[in-house]
Amino acid sequence: MSYCGLDFGTSNTTLGVATGNAARLVALEDDETTLPSAIFFDFAAARPAFGRAAIDAYAKGTDGRLMRSLKSVLGTDLIDQDTLLDRHRIGFRDVLKRLLGEIKARAEQAAGQPLDAVVHGRPVHFVDGDEAADRRAEDALAEIARAIGFRHVSFQFEPIAAALDYEQQVGAEEVALIADIGGGTSDFSIVRLGPDRRRAADRAGDILANDGIRIGGTDFDRLLSLKSAMPHLGYQSAMKKRGLLAPNGYFTDLSTWAKINFLYTPKVMAEIRQVQRESARPDLIARLAHVLEDHLGHRLAMLVERAKIGLSESERLDQALGWIEPGLVAGFARGEFETATAELSGGIAGMIRRCLADAGLSPAKIDAVFLTGGSTLLPNVRRAILGELPDSRIVEGDKFGSVGLGLTLESMLRYR
Q1: Which of 40, 203, 249, 350 supports an S-S bond with 49, CB 3.0-4.6 Å?
Q2: Are 54 and 302 within 8 A, CB to CB?
Q3: Which helix (H) or strand (E) holds 225?
Q4: Contact 348, 210 (CB under 8 A)
Q5: What's the pLDDT tens digit per position in 365-414?
Q6: What is the rounded CA–CA span in Å between residue 269 and residue 290?
Q7: Using CA atoms, how far apart are residues 216 and 278, in angstroms rounded to an integer?
Q8: Which residues, including other chains, have CB under 8 Å from residue 249's CB and lie 6 or more apart?
């Protein structure tokens, strides 16, 4: 049996296979082991592009439709809806099948063999506080995995997988908190680790706490967009009728990766034109109409994402929006960003306290904090985590590879 570990992420995807007794990630796009979780439907070529190629096609202005952050539809009603592609519609399940099927095919080519068993990563909660939706999300992912050719499908929590990867470097027994902050969720595990434990097939007794919250990098993107980009398009601008503001929903959807494509409809455009006629700032709403008419929503979302990353190094930066209107510039400030996202970072800190309570441990009993996931690079996220565990040793994991490697290690135990 050939087996693998698949980390299908909101922002990036990796897949690992075993080489001897070690796990390794395979190249999924040129020499890169990470593949952006993106698909672009090229209307002229009538075929999709994936990963960086998908993003590049969109950035070049190719006529088509870009989809990103597709993992976020799992556990929501969107998974059973469809979206317009040129002259026909496609369901989100079918979009996920195409994306994950391409990833499997590329991995098999890189590995030099077919893959028929997978340990799939999953967040602790696809949906907060809804066990039925959580089960539906895992069932949908399992159904898709079987549809693309995996005969054996099982799941492991992403922070547990990251713990298995970290354990490979642990030289003595310790208790670690694993913080996996990705594009869609923040997941935490408190795990007992050690060189004598990693060969055991059943590690249930070593998991002292395991929980998560639906807060991730795309949520930080959304709030930064609403704070610093959307006001240039009329967000919270006044209407002619005293006391009314422009409807929030269009701006919230335009700031949410998974909902951008739903704005590209004649019905929405008619509504926007009506808002423009009734607005006290029709010039701002005209910019919003331009973004929607020319399908520039993902371009704006990518600009905001770059600004978010840039604010990790800079206190302030400007981003040119001349492609919306000549001379238009949006300013982004770290202080404003952190104020706008304080509730998110507070939720992350609160989840750590909850995990400690579930484990029955004080912060002083945590020997190490293992950080993985791209959003752990955000300064306010790091402060939220480390502020709860000030005396623990900080271990920097592979931000985009630890979960995939851990899932592969798990596949070696389950399927070998």
Answers
A1: 40
A2: no
A3: none
A4: no
A5: 999 999 999 999 999 999 999 999 999 999 999 999 999 999 999 999 99
A6: 10
A7: 36
A8: none
Across 270-325, the runs of DSSP E, i.e. the strands, are 316-320
Helix 282-293 / helix 297-310 crossing angle, nearest 10 deg: 100
d(CA 132, CA 134): 5
Contact 257, 221 (CB under 8 A): yes
- Let me know if 112 is exposed, middle or buried by CB neighbors in 10 A (0-12, 13-18, 19+): exposed
Task: Give the CB-side neighbour count of residue 398, counting CA atoms within 13 A.
Answer: 20
Give me the residue spans of the domains in the chain. 3-158+405-415
The predicted model scores a pTM of 0.92
Residues in Cβ contact with 250 at an 8 Å cutoff, skipping those fewer than 6 apart: 263, 268, 271, 272, 275, 288
79, two tokens: 């998974």
Q: Phi/psi class of residue 209: alpha, beta or left (left: φ > 0; alpha: ψ in -120 to 50)?
A: beta
CATH code, residues 3-158+405-415: 3.30.420.40
User: What dihedral angle (degrees, nearest 10) is formed by the CA atoms of 123, 166, 32, 150?
Assistant: -50
Residue 208 DSSP SS3: strand
Distance CA 133, CA 144 (A): 16
